[in-house]
Design goal:
It catalyses: 7,8-dihydroneopterin 3'-triphosphate + H2O = 6-carboxy-5,6,7,8-tetrahydropterin + triphosphate + acetaldehyde + 2 H(+). This protein has about 130 residues and is of the alpha+beta class. The protein has one domain (about 1-125): Tetrahydropterin Synthase, Chain A, CATH 3.30.479.10. It has helices spanning about 50-65, 85-95; strands spanning about 1-15, 30-40, 105-115, 115-125. Strands 1-2-3-4 form a four-stranded antiparallel sheet, with helices on one face. Ligand LPXRUNBV binds near residues 23, 83 and 113.
Length: about 130
């Protein structure tokens, strides 16, 4: 399996209004470091998984609507908790809508909350 990963980051604000989250029920900020990984079993016609510039642009385009936003007010998270897991799924599905998934095995979004904690969401295409 071949993999290509690009990285970017965003600053967001949000609250997680459920007693499960303790102090994070209140409005707080976070800097999320986000890695997007495209997977292919076989390389494409140019012997790459994907052009690195194209991958970076797709990740940036998916993150731009979230950057510096209060996710409590973002339509993508209306009626649901904007956990890091939910953000990862949202970013994966956004990126998946930006390219032809033919020939790709999957796309993984990994988000680091801090150096010691991260989550990921894997979107298979086959
Ligand atoms: N699985 C997840 N757990 C938590 C998330 C999340 O998105 N996914 N988010 C948060 C908070 O938003 C925040 O990032 C951290 O909150 P905090 O309570 O300060 O931190 P911890 O849970 O690490 O520590 P405690 O020991 O519970 O204070 C929280 N969890």
């Amino acid at each position: 399996m071949f993999r290509l990963t690009v990285r970017n980051h965003i600053m967001i604000a949000h609250s997680l209004p459920d007693a499960f989250f303790g102090p994070a029920q209140g409005l707080h900020g976070a800097t999320l470091e986000i890695e997007a990984t495209w997977r292919r079993r076989e390389l494409g016609p140019h012997a790459v998984v994907m052009d690195i510039g194209a991958a970076s642009e797709m990740l940036d385009a998916a993150l731009e609507p979230l950057r510096y936003r209060n996710l409590d007010e973002h339509p993508a998270f209306e009626g649901r908790l904007s956990t890091t897991e939910a953000v990862a799924e949202h970013v994966a599905r956004d990126i998946a809508g930006r390219f032809d998934t033919e020939g790709f095995a999957g796309l993984e979004i990994l988000i680091r909350e801090n150096p010691d904690a991260w989550v990921s969401y894997d979107l298979p295409f086959e």
